Amino acid sequence: MYATSYCVTEALSAFKGKYLRGRINQDEYIKYVQDFVRISVGWKLRIDEVPILKPIVLREAERLMKSYKIDFLDCFQIVTILHG
Question: Whole domain around residue 59: which residue ranges?
Fold first, then answer.
């Protein structure tokens, strides 16, 4: 499995958001992060960086943003799968 550091950061941000909104407590937050790192990042997942400033990445992300009304980071992740 491959992902960019942006994908990993977004996943960790989801755990943080749940914690900050009070949906999980601090112990759960720590466990989710530890499990994610251990199961995904530390075992199967490889970090594959695609330069965010690469012209094709920016063009394609902009096209997807306009076509599907989704945010840049989601588009960037899609583009890196297609062109990474």
Answer: 50-84
Domain count within the chain: 2
Local structure of residue 47 (DSSP, 8 states): E
Residue 25's Cβ-count burial label (10 Å; 0-12, 13-18, 19+) is exposed
In a shared domain, residues 77 and 43:
no
Is 35 in the same domain as 63? no
What lies within 8 Å, CB to CB, of 36 at 6+ separation is 11, 12, 15
Please give the DSSP secondary-structure letter assigned to residue 53.
T
Which 3 state secondary structure label does DSSP give 57? helix
Average pLDDT over residues 19-40: 95
List all residues 6 or more positions away from 10 whose beta carbon is below 8 Å from its beta carbon: 73, 77
Supply the Cα-derived Rg of the chain in whole angstroms. 15
Question: Could you give the percent of the chain with pLDDT greater than 70?
Answer: 98
